[in-house]
Amino acid sequence: MAERSQTAPEAGNDMGNDEAIGGNVSKYIVLPTGYCGQPKKGHLIFDACFESGNLGRVDQVSEFEYDLFIRPDTCNPRFRVWFNFTVENVKESQRVIFNIVNFSKTKSLYRDGMAPMVKSTSRPKWQRLPPKNVYYYRCPDHRKNYVMSFAFCFDREEDIYQFAYCYPYTYTRFQHYLDSLQKRNMDYFFREQLGQSVQQRQLDLLTITSPEVCQAT
């Protein structure tokens, strides 16, 4: 069995049961069935415990194939689209197939040529996977959920690879951008706190208007 983080489900749970998904996987090591001992190169380690990360569960289907379950949105448990996770401890020329098996959308740009993003520690610029390696389809093995499968070949053992639904844009990055705008003291830009999110993050109200209106208010 694969080594499981504290948030991963126990063996034998229904693969289509989203209730088995807890928090994000954290340095989750996938070991072959029956293997005992320390992980070797090629025994993949998955992680999504970082800002904007999303990967709740990993099931190894075969030596080369993995079923990946994404976590739902905080306030909408039926909405499951975003994924963002890292893979390390890879072997050079190791080929894999990743299946995101519990998408909630019936329609997706993945059906029209869009492809997931990938980067690595030695190549930090986001790139799209070749569309020919990406497939989006309804799968009877997963309660007829829509599945997005993509093939990938790892080429550098020392790298950590990161995969995402599209270009990630974190809350922290957004706050830094708003801070930089506020420091410029532009007379047509006004920022105030509207409230807090469920996770106690600041919600900003931005007013962008002409200087005359700002002075009038």
Automatic annotation (TrEMBL):
Keywords: Carboxypeptidase, Hydrolase, Metalloprotease, Protease. The keyword Protease applies. GO terms for molecular function: carboxypeptidase activity; metallopeptidase activity. InterPro entries: Cytosolic_carboxypeptidase, Pepdidase_M14_N. Residues 47-135 form the Cytosolic carboxypeptidase N-terminal domain. Its cofactor is Zn(2+). Signal peptide: none annotated. This is AGBL carboxypeptidase 4.
